[in-house]
Amino acid sequence: MKEDAIEFVPFSELNVDDDFFRSLIDDYQGFEDWFMRKSGEGEKAYVLRTPELSGFLYLKDETEEDNNI
Q1: I want to staple 39 with a disulfide (CB 3.0 to 4.6 A). Which of 3, 11, 19, 57 is the partner?
Q2: Full strand arrangement of the beta sheet holding 6-10
Q3: 2-23: average pLDDT
Q4: Cβ(31)–Cβ(24) under 8 Å?
Q5: Binning pLDDT at 50, 70 and 90, where does residue 65 land?
Q6: What pLDDT is stored for residue 1 in this prediction?
Q7: Residue 3 confidence (pLDDT)
Q8: Is 10 helix (H, G, I), strand (E, B) or coil?
């Protein structure tokens, strides 16, 4: 049976030191802190592995009304 190409996994199963995240770490001050905070909060993200990590999507649940849109 073939596994799904995209998985929904906890941040804690991902390694922020993976080469995939290098440009985010370089370009966004505080990315590692944000990543570790999400990991500690039990947040999950969609990832694509081919077999190395090649895609990452985090969807933030918005609970507040935003009338600016």
Answers
A1: 11
A2: 6-10, 44-49, 53-57
A3: 92
A4: yes
A5: confident
A6: 42
A7: 65
A8: strand
Specify the DSSP element, H or E, that contains 55: strand 53-57
Q: What is the pLDDT of residues 26-57, one digit of tens each?
A: 999 999 999 999 999 999 999 999 889 999 99
28: tokens are 């966004």
Q: Which distant-in-sequence residues (6+ apart) come within 8 Å of 48 by Cβ?
A: 5, 6, 7, 54, 55, 56
Q: Is the dihedral of CA 8, 13, 15, 18 positive or negative?
A: negative
Q: Is the dihedral of CA 20, 22, 32, 58 positive or negative?
A: negative
Specify the DSSP class assigned to residue 47.
E
In 3D, which of 53, 7, 19, 60 has the Cα closest to residue 38?
Answer: 60
- Asked if 35 contacts 11 with a C-beta cutoff of 8 angstroms, the reply is yes
| Residue among 60, 41, 38, 53 nearest 6 (CA) | 53
